[in-house]
Design a protein that fits this description.
Blueprint lengths: L1 H18 L10 E3 L10 E2 L3 E5 L4 E4 L7 E6 L3 E2 L6 E4 L5 E4 L4 E7 L7 E3 L12 E9 L2
């Protein structure tokens, strides 16, 4: 069983290395296509502070060993002038988010068939252990 898990992890990590190669857009916002993902296990992050940097969008949860890189569903966008994220959840509801907001993200860890529209910036050092595919957000939770 352990050998299977190691092989599976290597396959998944190889797929992500290929996926992270793209993205010439200067936006720190990584996005994904919910409609092209056939397996999606529901999960949630803990409540944390949204951090929008020049290269990445993170969620810092108190007590966690590392920040979580958030990958947003299309058509989520980032306004470069205001630094605000216009998030559209899976129901089509829109929410404006900004650096420092306290949120809880709903979604899942990526699977082998997760499809990035805009892959995370390589400078984010994303890996399978710190990525979270967002499909909903609760404010102040």
């Amino acid at each position: 069983m352990n050998k299977f898990i190691k092989v599976f992890t290597l396959i998944i990590m190889s797929a992500f290395k290929v996926a992270f190669a793209g993205g010439d857009d200067a936006s720190p916002l990584a996005t994904w296509d919910l409609s092209k993902n056939t397996s999606f296990l529901a999960a949630a992050t803990g409540a944390g502070t949204l951090k929008i940097t020049d290269t990445c969008v993170w969620l810092e949860v108190e007590g966690a060993t590392e920040a979580t890189l958030l990958v947003w569903p299309e058509p989520t966008s980032l306004n470069a002038e205001t630094g605000e994220i216009t998030f559209v959840n899976y129901k089509g509801d829109t929410m404006i988010l900004k650096d420092g907001d306290i949120i809880t993200a709903g979604g899942a860890s990526p699977t082998g068939n997760s499809t990035f529209v805009k892959a995370p910036n390589p400078a984010c050092n994303a890996n399978i252990n710190n990525l979270f595919m967002v499909n909903d957000v609760l404010r102040g939770q």
